[in-house]
Amino acid sequence: MTSQYNFKKIVIVPTAKDFIDIVLSKTQRKTPTVVHKQYKISRIRQFYMRKVKFSQQTFHDKLSTILTDFPKLDDIHPFYADLMNVLYDKDHYKLALGQINIALHLIDNVSKDYVRLLKYGDSLYRCKQLKKAALGRMATIMKRQAQSLQYLEQVRQHLSRLPSIDPNTRTLLICGFPNVGKSSFINKITRADVEVQPYAFTTKSLFVGHTDHRYLRWQVVDTPGILDHPLEDRNTIEMQAIAALAHLRAAILYVMDISEQCGHTIEQQVALFESIKPLFANKPLLVVLNKTDVIRLEELNPEQKALIQGFINDDIPVMEMSTFSEEGVMNVKTEACERLLSHRIEVKIKSKKVEGILNRLHVALPKPRDGCTRPAFVPEKVIEKRLEKGPKIKKKTERDLEVELEDDYSLDLKKNYDLPADFKYDVIPEFWEGKNIADYIDPDIMAKLEELEREEELRVESGVYEKEEEEMDDEEKEIHRLAGKIREKKAIIAIEGRIGRSGGAPVMPRAGRKRERSVSRLRSEFEELGVDMSNKSGAHFSRTKSRSASRPPIKKARADSAGRVSSSSRVTPRDQSGIRNVELKAKAKKMGHKAQGKMNQFGKAGEADRHIAVKMPRHLYSGKRGIGKTDRR
Amino acid sequence: MPQNEHIELFQKRYGFRMDYQERQRKKKAREHKLQSKMAQKLIGIKGKIFAKKRYSEKVQLKRTIKAHEEKKTCKKEDGKVPEGAMPAYLLDRENTSQAKLLSSMVKQKRKEKAGKWDVPLPKVRAQSEAEVFRVLKTGKSRRKGWKRLVTKVCFVGEGFTRKPPKYERFVRPMALRFKKAHVTHPELKATFCLPIVGVKKNPSSPMYTSLGVITKGTIIEVNVSELGLVTQGGKVVWGKYAQVTNNPENDGCINAILLV
């Protein structure tokens, strides 16, 4: 049985016009749109039949979700069924849903008929007219349901805002005349924020709040006030309270206003009690006298006291409270909860389910071996000592202090420090005279340190830390020396490389760097390292023969004092060659950057990189157009 | 949890934002911009639907504006005389004499007799056989072409049984057989769904009449016992003629006008 106490999941019911628009536009979007009269007739027929069937399916789906989402009054708890009857009129509700159901079947029939007719359509024009007629008929059927749909939408909105009352759990139900203080009471014991105003019928529907007692969750239901007149004359607001009283198995708190500020005398309130007494059968009842801050029970006159006494004579507990001064409110709640709990336990014990649990429980007590008792043994001396000590002085705990001081209390952990009073609340520093205070916390720290040092000396003397040194011959020594030099040189090169690397400035490619590796450079570097380069005229690195047939005069490259050729410095760098002035240079640079940007974005290696990552991206080669034709892709 | 009218309660307790009224006012003032944007942007079917809706709105607006303006302007009276109004000195005259009444009655009767077959649709396009029938090839090698399939809507009547399929020349498919027609009463302007009794005459050909083919302009007989018409003699009228006004094979239903 699906009993929902939360009606917030009902699908939104659109208006008739919107409904038709939704379904027709969905049909247009989700079915093929192109058909020509030169197609085969079977293809044309299929095209139009699909449209008719699709519309019918969509209508069917949407209407059936509406029908299943709305609760059936026979399937839900009678409390909710009654409440919905009071609020929405059971007949109207059932009729509206019935009309929707009829519309559903009519639409199905229309679709069936027209699909059958479409099978005999022999031209595009005829099939198109038949499809138009079919969709038009379905739309007309929906247009006739406008009223039902509107009503159902209003019902849905109201249903979603109903408080979720669980009819089976522990509930306290508060009832009474209007303005006696029911809403104030529920505001006091729960976190429900019910409006409290001096005029009658401030609360116009049921409100629910939750409270705790004995580690259990209790529901508290606040009802609108009930007036004393027969059932037929009751209006919708009062009927909600009656529905709650009739169907919820709860503890009833009948609230009375003994100060008569609500506008009704105690006699009238007692009369109301008598008239709704049949609804209190089999439910734990509690009569609560509210507004005792204005007038107390003892101050009432004897006739009124007699009426109240009548309750006590009938075994109905009467309690006093005042929601204004908050005295007795907690007692009332506790009493009501206790009564309901014991009532529910009684009912459970009488039911069959308890047997199953009781059968499984067994409390095992040890069987006594013999008849003599064996109480706890306390030696006499201990007893004497205890008496000497006197009664245990109860130490004052922090909690007691907190309760005493209330708002002025603040937790002070330093007050029990073992220091003279003026040092207690000082801030502890971390350093003192250049030393860590933490190091000196231990009083024996100096002695321990000395011991450690002594131990260390002993170890050094005994030679624990001595290492064996190997004997190296000349060769190995030479190798060691050279290795050291190589390491040094490597480190220098690395550092120079790091210095030489300049941010994001563009680097000239290797081919552009002229004359980096020249013979003169070779010569100078080797001289630095100490190699003799004077008589290397026949070496492979020096040019012996010129390559051209006619021998032009050998131009001697201008070398500076270090022997480095300076020709490379005279060639104009590429970003300046062919450019007249500075502005053009800047412009050329900008253009270069702009052209490169797009290439970089697509991860291209260069201008000549024509690789395409995705040859047929799906978003360009599939799908229908939002508007327009899909002739070319 | 928010219960019952929590939104209204909140508004009652805490009121609205400081700029709430201003924002509402400004939002409303901006609405015409949104409308014009939609009117320019929407194209295709949505554009057409929007344009239609907007047109009807504009027509209403113009009408109300005109009505308001009429109140403001003070027009001179046209001097139009309402129909049937007579000057005071002519009021007491008898308009038609007895003789005139009789003669007009006779003329009326003659006219009725002459116009007995005056139908709402006097002329209809003739349907050729190629339109109404389609050749059905039969036989083992599909060479014989003597069977015909009726492509228009027809009426076969209750208790109709097909001829044995081997000898059946005109095939009337079940999907195209209709029993009811939507008949409109021309004066009452009300439409009823009445059962068809039979096909009286098909203007294109008597063969179609015998087959029961219903096309536009066909005279059919419908069962009007629902309407509860009574003759002058006190007898109940249960059958009347009606003429079909639409193409039933295109619309899937038969619409007819009652011939009174």
TrEMBL record, chain A:
Compositional bias (Basic residues) at which positions? 542-556, 587-596
Give the chief site where it resides. nucleus
Q: Name one GO molecular function term.
A: GTPase activity
Keyword Nucleus found: yes
Record keywords:
Coiled coil, GTP-binding, Nucleotide-binding, Nucleus, Ribosome biogenesis
Classification via InterPro entries? G_OBG, GTP-bd, NOG1, NOG1_N, NOG1_Rossman_fold_dom, NOG_C, P-loop_NTPase
Indicate where this protein resides in the cell. Nucleus, Nucleolus
Q: Where is the composition biased (Polar residues)?
A: 564-579
Asked whether the UniProt record includes Nucleotide-binding among its keywords, one would answer yes
Ranges for the OBG-type G domain?
170-341
**Gene3D superfamilies for the chain:** 1.20.120.1190, P-loop containing nucleotide triphosphate hydrolases
Q: What does this protein do?
A: Involved in the biogenesis of the 60S ribosomal subunit.
Name this protein carries in UniProt: Nucleolar GTP-binding protein 1
Q: Which gene encodes it?
A: EOG090X02QX
TrEMBL record, chain B:
Highest taxon of source: Eukaryota
Q: Which residues cross the membrane?
A: none
| Localization per Swiss-Prot or TrEMBL | Nucleus, Nucleolus
Could you confirm whether the keyword Ribonucleoprotein appears in this record? yes
A Gene Ontology biological process in which this protein takes part is:
maturation of 5.8S rRNA
A Gene Ontology CC term for this entry?
A: preribosome, large subunit precursor
Give any Pfam family that matches.
Ribosomal_S8e
Keywords (alphabetical) are: Nucleus, Ribonucleoprotein, Ribosome biogenesis, rRNA processing
Tell me which InterPro entries the record gives: NSA2_fam, Ribosomal_Se8/biogenesis_NSA2
Q: What does this protein do?
A: Involved in the biogenesis of the 60S ribosomal subunit. May play a part in the quality control of pre-60S particles.
**Could you say which protein family the record assigns here?**
Belongs to the eukaryotic ribosomal protein eS8 family. Ribosome biogenesis protein NSA2 subfamily.
Description of how the protein assembles with itself and partners? Component of the pre-66S ribosomal particle.
The protein depicted here goes by the name Ribosome biogenesis protein NSA2 homolog
Q: Which organism is it from?
A: Daphnia pulex
Q: Which gene encodes it?
A: EOG090X0BLH
